[in-house]
Amino acid sequence: MKHISSLSMLGAALFFLSACGSPSLPSQSAFDDAPLATPCVIASDSISVILRDYFPKLSKMDTVTIKADSAMHLISLLDVHEGKQTGELIVFNRTGFKQAGLDGSRVPLLTTRSIEGTKDKFNLVIANGQSDIAVLWQNTLMGKKFFKKLSGTEVQVTVPANAKRFKRSYIRVYAANEHGIGNDVLVPLDYGEVVSDISELDRTDKRAQIMYFLMIDRFKDGDTSNTKKLNVPDVLPRVDYYGGDIAGIDQVLKSGYFDSLGINTIWISPVTQNPYDAWGQIYKPKTQFSGYHGYWPIYATAVDKRFGTADELKGFLADAHADNKNVILDYVSNHLHINSPTLKAHPDWVTPDVTPDGRPNFQLWDEFRLTTWFDKHIPSLDLEKDYVYKPMTDSALFWMKNFDFDGYRHDATKHIPEVYWRMLTRKILDSLPADRSIYQIGETYGSLELINSYVKPGMMDGQFDFNVYDSYIAATTDTAGSFKNLWNTVNSSLNTYGYHNLMGYITGNQDRARYTSIAGGDLKKGEDWKEAGWFRDIEVADTSAYHLMAMLEAMNMTLPGVPCIYYGDEFGQGGANDPDNRRWMRFSGLNPHEEHLLAETRELIKTRAGSLPLIYGDCFPLVVTDDVLVYLRSYMGKFVICGLNKSRTTAFEQSVALPEGLMLDGSANVDISIAPLSYSIIIN
After folding, report:
1. Calpha distance 300→345 (Å, rounded)
2. Span 518-562, pLDDT tens digits
3. Is the four-CA dihedral 9, 12, 17, 21 of positive or negative sign?
């Protein structure tokens, strides 16, 4: 043990299909190497389903077969036929729960543990009873010949021989009982053998990513010859160019900083050419802005000369890959700068700058989310028109075809229609080699339903879960803040995106005030946090904020999903909102509190990177109170427990029962101890 402190099986793979018989796995199918079709959720009496959202490589749909339980309809199976090949789509019918008087919430239903000494079998422990269960290899339902009952709650699963042809494939399990839909189970396979060692993973395993977001202009100036500040009186220095560039990032890479931190994926801000003059205007203080941030593209397919050259970018990507690092490109699809030659040639490509009722169509983020302009100098593209989205998806694809990026962070996702995302993802699948792993993550603020509407194999792998981040802030900085509310938010996300999602979990970003200054009290509730950064020196007055940041990083590193660190958060950089949250990166001169947090961050990243339970494990709550949150991640009998305690005065001491099928040193209980304002991680 490592301690880090500061049902009954009835003989069918798909029970509600037992009367129809279980299909055999085909010898080979185009659906085998297609992206995993995430479940379709039906929440109303009628729904239109675009099957290419789930099977984006589908060229022609011949027939569709729907199979469902005649009693409750908790889980249905939709067979999609293309020629003689079939792919299965799991359908959760939430209206069935409503009709049965259930709340539709998920309860911990399944845990997994392995059979010792074999690579082609594993066990499922099915706890809390069940009525429907479906097990798939890739996008194909597994028949009853792949299952063997071992006990009242334990089932042995045999890996199909089909999996031996694939470097990476997956077995997935979905289940439901009278309480609702249970947690899903995901088991990765390596050439047909259950992954049992962390060394079997590589940087193409998306769930193994640990992301680091940096702003190019604010990270490191590696080539002073391309540093070109505007140096005009209308632009205050902190919103002018600083001089960071691609050469600087490459120097930091070669210095070993990213290796010492432990991250394996670098997300860089946009590299596209921005204007050479100043735009935008505020009056308190009075200033215009440069395009140092990269979000005002004037040429969608050119590298900004102030950041470097195309050859330098290719060299950095080659160096990153040689160092076993992914690089994700921040890409702007929603708009172009008003002086873009593309817009001058095609003025009809933009949305109206006036709403139908005559108001200026600026920053109406929710009311007119698909047409509103972000500012007067960056018109939104009318991406619902095919003569706009077709060439603009080509411009986005340009960066994957001509540079060896490993994916995109998509800016302003919810302001762009779904047809754009469908076409871009289809072009990626059609244009790039089948073994090229591209991770797409979006940025959307809003409801779970809105965020999730873009998270499908035919659009994006995930989005950033700002709801969990905001819930953590509220739980740890508000007087009445509670970890009960935080876990409710986490649980809602797991229920919506799945227990093995590819959502991003952040310490902060370029649009938010720094967490340590919020938690440290330098930023006052009710004040304008943008304005505060212009007129006060925002730092970290209350050093307890560093402990709370360590707890946030511990949570991000132990939840399902992709943890992401905003540059400087690894040591607790202070700051107000934009632009004060975009200071020069510091590589030295840290105070003792920052040094200690940096050391903790490195240890937490190391723990995440070395743990199969934290990458592919299931997730179960153990203790949820106002001040304490304890949860468990388990995979093949191994598990990690993470506990957070935000009380400033009271330690947490308790013996907690483990989920069925898990043991620690021969005991079904584990003793958990967490100091005030601290976290504890237990690894068996």
Report:
1. 14
2. 999 999 999 999 999 999 999 999 999 999 999 999 999 999 999
3. negative
Burial 437-463 (b: 16+ CB within 10 A, else e): ebbbbbbbbbeeeebbbbbbbbbbbbb
Note whether 491 and 451 are within 8 A (CB): no
Give just the sign of the alpha carbon dihedral 512, 513, 514, 520: negative
Contacting residues for 164 by C-beta, under 8 A, at least 6 apart: 191, 192
Nearest to 378 by CA among 483, 319, 447, 294: 294
Contact indicator for 36, 172 with CB cutoff of 8 Å: yes
- The span from the CA of 213 to the CA of 211, in Å, is 7
Predicted TM-score (pTM) of the model is 0.94
Contacts of 84 (CB under 8 A, 6+ apart): none
Instruction: Encode pLDDT of 477-523 as tens digits.
Output: 999 999 999 999 999 999 999 999 999 999 999 999 999 999 999 99
Cβ burial, residue 257 (10 Å; 0-12/13-18/19+): middle
Question: How crowded is residue 33: how many other Cβ atoms within 10 Å of its Cβ?
Answer: 15
Structure tokens at 232: 């005009």
How would DSSP label each residue in 81-137? EETTEEEEEEEEEHHHHHHTT--------EEEEEPTT-SSEEEEEE-S--SEEEEEE
Q: How many angstroms separate the CA atoms of 160 and 32, rounded?
A: 12
The residue count for the chain: 684
- Please check the confidence at residue 206 and state whether its pLDDT lies above 80: yes
Strand order in the sheet with 85-93: 40-42, 85-93, 75-82, 63-68
**Rounded to whole angstroms, how far apart are CA atoms 316 and 222?**
12
Q: Which of 629, 609, 676 is nearest to 490 (CA)?
A: 629
Q: Which residues sit opposite 114 in a β-bridge?
A: 122
What token pair was written down for 403? 């540079």
Return d(Cα 647, Cα 593) in angstroms, integer: 20
